[in-house]
Please model this.
Amino acid sequence: MVLELKLRKIGNSVGLVLPKEALAHLNASEGDSVTVTEGPEGTLRLSPHSAEVARQMDVVQDVMKRYRHALRELAK
Model:
């Protein structure tokens, strides 16, 4: 699915209005949360919010923060 969406002013912010096809693809509806993550080459990925995935991301970010120097050395 490829959709070209227009950014719109919503109050003091800018947002996207997702068409029903996109909501159906996400299995989401009004009031649900979605997660935006970085993808390759500067892209963003939109997915339904999952409490388990959010917990896992928190753990990963904590590990990356604690071991940032070791990870940086390993990346060389």
Summary: The longest strand covers residues 34-38. Strands lie at 8-10, 13-15, 34-38, 44-48. The chain has one domain: 8-74. The helical segments are 20-26, 51-66, 68-74.
